[in-house]
Amino acid sequence: MVIAVASRLLLRRALLAVPLVFAVVALTFFFIRLAPGDPAQILAGDAPTPEFLAQVRAEYGLDQPVWTQFLAFLAKALTGDFGTSLYSKQPVFAVILERFPATVLMTGTAMIVASIVGILVGVASAKRAGSHADTLISSASLLGYSMPGFWVGQLLVLLFSVSLDWFPATGMEAARASYTGWRHIQDVAWHMVLPVTTLALFLLTMIARFTRAAMIDALDQDYVLVAEAKGASRNRILWHHAFRNACVTTITVIGLEFGAVLAGAVVVEIVFGWPGLGRLFYDAIYRRDFPLLTGAFMFSSLIVIGVNMVSDVACALLDPRIRR
Amino acid sequence: MSEPVLSIRDLHVSFPTATVVQGVSFDVMPGEIVGVVGESGSGKSMTARSVLRLLPKSARLGGSIRFRGQEVLDMSPADIRAMRGALVSMVFQDPMTSFNPVLRIGDQIAEAMTLHGQKDRKTLSDRVASLLASVGIGNPKARARAYPHEFSGGMRQRALTAMAVANGPALLIADEPTTALDVTVQDQILQLMRDLNATSGTAILLITHNIAVVASLCRRLIVMYAGRVVEDGPTDEVLTAPRHPYTWSLLQSVPRLDRATGRLVAIKGQPPDPAEPLAGCKFHPRCPWVEERCTRDEPPLEDGVRCWVRPAL
User: Fold this and answer.
1) Which end of chain B is more exposed for a tag (fewer CB within 10 A), N or C?
2) A247 in a domain, yes or no?
């Protein structure tokens, strides 16, 4: 029954996602071309002759009207060809998929860390609502929520890499040592500490704040009193009764904020020199690599939509009143 | 005479700003149905919740509450949890919000039993089905899998009652169990309680502001006003021959079909603010028979009435 509900919901969300992805692709396609800068200029190098520039434009179809370019892109996209990166000359999706695992590793770890810590902090804070500990946690999370990622990242680097030399400041693995097996995993984990902390901080404070509010609301409900009158322990009331209700809010927040996390990942990857999609996208913007940018936006919107679909379905499975 | 199942002596409940229950004493005998009436703020719900220690954290309790001779106010948290839902259970006012909306009805009823040691799934599901059937819910096996929003208000209150009696408690505390229900559904719930009392001998402490409900169910009636018991006696005597001016006024304000009363008489004035100390009898500002000493000294509860004057009513 659960599977039937989940698949029906997923199908409906997937159908809604089609026009959304199309809109993202179309908007990206046109907006990038409105931005100043000419990829032909960048590709042709310093002081090219007008003939050479025209040749480069013709080669990449950049001399065509934007509409024609768009239709050509769509026609090719339907066959699974999303174009070729102007810079690396590789198929766009191959370039993206190559960088994808590094980003999944960092973003995924940050999401998991932020969810677990955020929920624990939120619940602990709601349990003691109004106490000094709660005020302290709330102030700390407001602080964490107000600090921009690039700044936090640089502060962490200054403190933990430059001054204390505890964690590496950049990269994903030690450049000179080529570790294998368990040692390699340890090395990557070591490199992840600072970027994951930076990225997780914002989401963590969001999750903690919303979970706290939802838990306070849930703990104030009659069914909590009824559960207490049945002889339920404090922990059972907290997790089985109140959190089962509050987690719908938590999951919605995680789903909604995932886009912001992905955007934050771009910044964090640049600050920490992490070889993921963020770095790739940043370079693509700098190089006016139109096909790669279109592919990048399409890809990230697909991921954001996918994550939101999963969070919608999770909410529906957790709260029977949302199902239908 | 047997031991009372519940014995409350000189109970005080106070909050930082006010004392809401002051010197309440009464007993409930095994198998007895006792009604507690009073208007909002009279302390009746706080008295009821004190028995299970289900009061807000800021509440301070004084006096004594003995359940089967054991002092509830001295119990450890674990002992209280062992008592809650097993020996003493409670039904609350609003059936719409008393069930957890994200858990199945059957699982919530089963939880009342798992919390007190019953872990066998087959036994649990059979017991849940028979409990639901006993409160008149048809197709109980399937309905146990339903969520609260799939039940009507009356069904929920019946399911809540089933949940409260799952462990065969010695005492059931019902706090305004029918207030939120239609009149026809009210009747079903009252009948259910009557049956329960008759078949299993569960003592019931019924908290209500509805005198008709008390009249139909309870053999004994306690009237509360401003955190105090003002009258305590057999229901028919209290209703036909009230001895406290407050009880009398309360009855005058209830519409009756069996005699032409003309205009209903509202009790003039307001109940005292628990945050403002009031000397003497707490009812004296509203009492038609008020005398000088009523404003000075508080009368004791003697012979089931708390009144200096005891006018012929």
Assistant:
1) N
2) yes
Domain count, chain A: 1
What is the pLDDT, as a whole number, of residue B98?
92
Count Cβ atoms below 10 Å from residue B9 Cβ, excluding itself.
13
Chain B nearest C-alpha distance from A254 (Å)? 20
The mean pLDDT values, 10 residues at a time, for chain B of 313 residues are: 88 90 92 91 90 91 92 93 93 88 93 90 92 88 92 89 90 87 81 88 90 87 92 91 90 72 72 82 88 89 87 78
DSSP secondary structure, B188-216, as one string: HHHHHHHHHHHHH--EEEEEES-HHHHHH
Residues in chain B with CB shorter than 8 Å from the CB of A241 are 100, 103
Give this complex's ipTM: 0.88
Asked if B110 contacts B152 with a C-beta cutoff of 8 angstroms, the reply is no
- Using a CB–CB cutoff of 8 Å, tell me whether B227 touches chain A: no
Structural domain harbouring A103? 93-286
Is residue A106 situated within a structural domain? Answer: yes
Residues 6 or more apart whose CB falls under 8 angstroms from that of A302 comprise: A17, A21
pLDDT above 90 coverage of chain B, percent: 47
Domain B6-99+151-295 class, CATH top level: alpha beta
Residue A101 lies in a domain: yes
What is the rounded CA–CA span in Å between residue B155 and residue B124?
20
Give pLDDT, residue A30: 85
Tell me the domain boundaries of chain B: 6-99+151-295, 101-150
CB-CB neighbours of A220 under 10 Å: 11
Task: Report yes or no: B112 at the A interface, CB cutoff 8 Å.
Answer: yes
Scanning B155-174 for CB atoms below 8 A from A yields 160, 163
A81 within some domain: no
Q: Which residues of chain A have a CB within 8 Å of the CB of B54?
A: 225, 228-229
Tell me, rounded to whole angstroms, the distance of Cα B148 from its chain centroid: 24
pLDDT confidence of residue A237? 93
Report B:4-43 residues touching A (Cβ under 8 A): none
Average pLDDT over chain B reads 88
CATH for A234: 1.10.3720.10
Q: How confident is the model over B24-73, as pLDDT tens digits?
A: 999 999 999 999 998 888 889 999 999 999 998 889 999 999 999 899 99
Cα A244 to Cα A214: distance, rounded to the nearest angstrom: 10
User: Is residue A218 a contact partner of residue A224, using CB atoms and an 8 Å limit?
Assistant: yes
